Amino acid sequence: MAKAKSHYVCQSCGSVYRRWAGRCTDCGAWNSIVEEAPPAEAAQPKGLGVGRGTTLKLVGLADDGRIDPRLETGLPELDRAVGGGFVPGSAVLIGGDPGIGKSTLLLQALAGLAQAGRRAVYISGEEAEAQVQRRAGRLGLADAEVHLATATSLRDILTTLDDGPAPHILVIDSIQTLYADTLDSAPGTVAQVRACAQALIGFAKRRGTVVLLVGHVTKDGQIAGPRVLEHMVDTVLYFEGERGHPFRILRSVKNRYGGTDEIGVFEMTGLGLAQVGNPSEMFLSDRSGDVSGSAVFAGVEGTRPVLVEIQALVAPTQAANPRRTVVGWDSGRLAMVLAVLDARCGLGLAGADVYLNVAGGLKIAEPAADLAVAAALVSSLTDRPVPPETVLFGEISLSGDIRPVAQADARLKEAGKLGFTRAYLPARTKAGQDAGPVRAHGLDGVADLVALFGAGETD
After folding, report:
1. 100 carries a ligand binding annotation
2. Same domain for 140 and 266?
3. CATH number of the domain residue 379 falls in
4. What is the pLDDT of residues 19-30, one digit of tens each?
5. Looking at per-residue confidence, does 190 or 135 come out higher?
C-alpha cells in the first residue's frame, strides 16, 4: 500500500495545497500554510456496499411538547443576544480580543444556571483550576455548583462527560487548545480545530447539551481557525470593546434560533460584568450638548433602538494627503459622505484632516448614520453646534438625497424617552414619525442640512 503523503493547509482559511507556499492564494495570508499529516483512514470500503443503514424516524413540523424550553442564564443582556436564552442541544461560538472578559462572562452565566438547578460544566484548556477558582472568588461565585476541570485532550473530555449525567451547559475555553489524538497535527491547527469542534457539536446534538466554545481571534478581529467553524455552530457571538472604555458589547452575527445583530451591553467593574439596561443613556452620559462637531444618532441594533454620540473634527492641513481617521464606523462610508458634501454643497472638505469617532466604543454598521455623520462634520467645519436635544438619522445617496430608513418610529420613541424634543430625518419617511415630545423635521437633501448651519436654523 502506498504511503499517504502529507499535505499543506492554510491556518487562516483551511485551503489545502500539495506543496508549501509563502502566501495563500485564497485568503491572501502570508506564512499561514503549515504541513499536516493526513488523518488515519478507517478500514472500510470506499462505497456504501450492499448493506442497509439504520431507518430514520421521521417527525412532523408541529411542536408536540418534546422540545425543551430555552435555558435562561439570569443575565438578560446575554439572553437577549442569543434570542431569549440558549436552546438545548445547540453549539455557540464566542470570540473576542484577549482580556476582553469572555471567561468572566461565561463563568457568570454558568453560575446563574447552576443556581437555577442546572448542571453546568466548565473545562479550561488555558488556565489551571486554581486560577478559575480564584476568579470565581473575586466575582463572588465561589458557592455556585459549577463543575470545573482542566483538560486539553478531546478523548478525556468526552469520556468524562459520557460517564455521568449529561450537563445542561458545557463551556470549552478554548477550542484552539484542544487536540484529538487521532491527528498528528498540533493543537490550534485547522485539522485539530475542525475535528474537535465536530466531535463536541455531535455530543451537543446527541445529549441535548448547550456547548459554548470560546475562540481566539486574529489581529483583524476575526475568529481564528478555519472559516468552516462558524458554519458548523448554531450561533456566533463577538465580544467587543475598546481598551480605554469599561463598556462591552456582545453582538450576535449568526443565530439559527433568533435574530442577528442583536446586542447585549455590559460594563466591566471590579466585581465582574454588570448589565446595562439602558445603553442609550450610558452612551450619552458624558455628552456636552453645546460643543461643535457632535451629533446624536438614533440607531437600531437588532431589535433595540440605541442612541449614540458621533464626534467629528475637521482641521486644516498643509499635507498633500489629508488624514482620515475613523473609530467605530466604516472608513469607506466616511469617504463617500465627504465626497457628497464636497460635490453637492461645495464645502471643500477634501483638503482638510477629518477625524470621526463613535463615543462609547460602539461599532456602527447601518447606513442610517450617514445624516448624523454629515451633521457632525458640518458642525465642526462651521464651528456651530447641532441644535440641542436633537437626534438625526437617514441614509445619504450619491445624488445628495436623504433616503428613508426602517424603524423610524422606534428610533423616535427611544429619543423621546431620553428627553430629546427634535429629530431631523428623511422627508419621505412614512407618517407617524412624531413620538411623544419629539418633533420631526424632514430633510430632502444634504443641502437642507448644510443650510441649518450656514444660513441659520430653520424651524
Report:
1. yes
2. yes
3. 3.30.230.10
4. 888 998 887 888
5. 135
Tell whether residue 399 is among the known ligand binding residues: no
* pLDDT tens string 26-51: 878 888 888 876 655 544 445 556 66
**Is 28 annotated as ligand-binding?**
no
CB atoms within 10 A of CB 240: 19
Closest CA to 248 of 407, 108, 411, 70: 108
Using CA atoms in the order 123, 126, 132, 135, what is the torsion angle rounded to 10 degrees?
-130
Tell whether 238 and 273 lie within a shared domain. Answer: yes
pLDDT of residue 25: 87
289 marked as part of a ligand binding site? no
Q: Residue 436 belongs to what domain range?
A: 282-452
Is residue 67 a known part of a binding site? no
Nearest Cα to Cα of residue 10 among 1, 25, 2, 414:
25
Same domain flag for 328 and 402: yes
> Does 288 carry a binding-site annotation?
no
246 labelled as ligand-binding?
no
- Report the percentage of the chain scoring pLDDT > 70: 91
Are residues 303 and 265 located together in one domain of the fold? no
Please count the structural domains in the chain. 3
> Is 403 buried (19+), middle (13-18) or exposed (0-12) by CB count in 10 A?
middle
57 assigned ligand-binding residue: no
Counting every residue written for the chain, the total comes to: 459
The pTM (predicted TM-score) of the whole model is 0.80
Cα gap 162→260, rounded to integer Å: 33
Selection from 263, 151, 135, 141 nearest residue 196 by Cα? 151
Q: Which position has the grid cell 428613508?
A: 404
